[in-house]
Amino acid sequence: EAGVAQSPRYKIIEKRQSVAFWCNPISGHATLYWYQQILGQGPKLLIQFQNNGVVDDSQLPKDRFSAERLKGVDSTLKIQPAKLEDSAVYLCASSFGAPEGSEQYFGPGTRLTVT
Amino acid sequence: AQTVTQSQPEMSVQEAETVTLSCTYDTSESDYYLFWYKQPPSRQMILVIRQEAYKQQNATENRFSVNFQKAAKSFSLKISDSQLGDAAMYFCAYSGYSTLTFGKGTMLLVSP
């Protein structure tokens, strides 16, 4: 089966610019996650969708970050305007069932550099 | 809030040897899951092994096994017969009634 797809793989922008990331989860996976992984740290959850509804966005900086999941499939994560501290790898993951105990399948990530 | 601590930033092992990666966590929940994920350089993160807290028996997956000490809130990963392909960043993670919380990771270096 096809894995989680993400694009672009790399992005370099200047601070105050905007950027968008795209994710296509594994077919049939109802739950989709966006993580931010800063160099030297573990992934931190930004937002979790169950189908096309938001389950948890408590750690999403809502003044600059937004995300949507259209039709319960693909998802986009946007940053506007970007700050230097947003430089990180943005990981998308999906799982078939409820988050507790479910294996999450990760995409290759998008490495964002903000200059 | 739950926290996951990996106290070893880096570990080294020789091929065919055994290595143990440490993880401790803090929680007030009674039911939860613990995971070890592997993130090879420039490759996708994959699940290595999963443990359900209500199961006393330690999980095993081929060369990978865990030592789960619920009272001590400890969850270590043992890799037997280490291979060059085991070189990666290993993350311990916790999932209770909320979302997945990761530790900072342990980089495992494998030498021939």
Task: List the topology elements.
The complex is a heterodimer of chains A (115) and B (112).
Chain A: E1 5-7, E2 10-13, E3 19-24, E4 31-37, E5 44-50, E6 53-56, E7 65-69, E8 75-79, E9 88-95, E10 105-106, E11 110-114
Parallel strand pairs in A: 2-11
Antiparallel strand pairs in A: 1-3, 3-8, 4-5, 4-9, 5-6, 7-8, 9-10, 9-11
Chain B: E1 3-5, E2 10-14, E3 19-21, E4 24-26, E5 33-39, E6 46-52, E7 60-61, E8 64-69, E9 74-79, E10 88-95, E11 100-102, E12 106-111
Parallel strand pairs in B: 2-12
Antiparallel strand pairs in B: 1-4, 3-9, 5-6, 5-10, 7-8, 8-9, 10-11, 10-12
Describe the structure.
- The complex is a heterodimer of chains A (115) and B (112).
- Chain A is an all-beta fold and 115 residues long.
- Chain A has no helices and 11 strands.
- Chain A has strands at 5-7, 10-13, 19-24, 31-37, 44-50, 53-56, 65-69, 75-79, 88-95, 105-106, 110-114.
- In chain A, strands 2, 4, 5, 6, 9, 10 and 11 form a 7-stranded mixed beta sheet that branches. A 4-stranded antiparallel beta sheet of chain A has the order 1-3-8-7, with no helix packed on it.
- In chain A, a hairpin with a 6-residue loop joins strand 4 (31-37) and strand 5.
- The model of chain A has no long low-confidence stretch (mean pLDDT 93).
- Chain B has 112 residues and is an all-beta fold.
- Helices cover 0% and strands 53% of the residues of chain B.
- Chain B is built from no helices and 12 strands.
- Chain B has strands spanning 3-5, 10-14, 19-21, 24-26, 33-39, 46-52, 60-61, 64-69, 74-79, 88-95, 100-102, 106-111.
- In chain B, the strands form 3 sheets. In chain B, strands 2, 5, 6, 10, 11 and 12 form a 6-stranded mixed beta sheet that branches. In chain B, strands 3-9-8-7 form a 4-stranded antiparallel beta sheet, with no helix packed on it. A two-stranded antiparallel sheet of chain B has the order 1-4.
- In chain B, a hairpin with a 4-residue loop joins strand 10 (88-95) and strand 11.
- The radius of gyration of chain B is 13 Å and the shape is globular.
- In chain B, 35% of the residues are buried.
- Chain A binds chain B through residues 3-4, 33, 40-45, 48, 56, 91, 93, 99-101, 103-104, 106-109, and chain B through 4, 32-33, 43-47, 50, 52, 91, 93, 95-105.
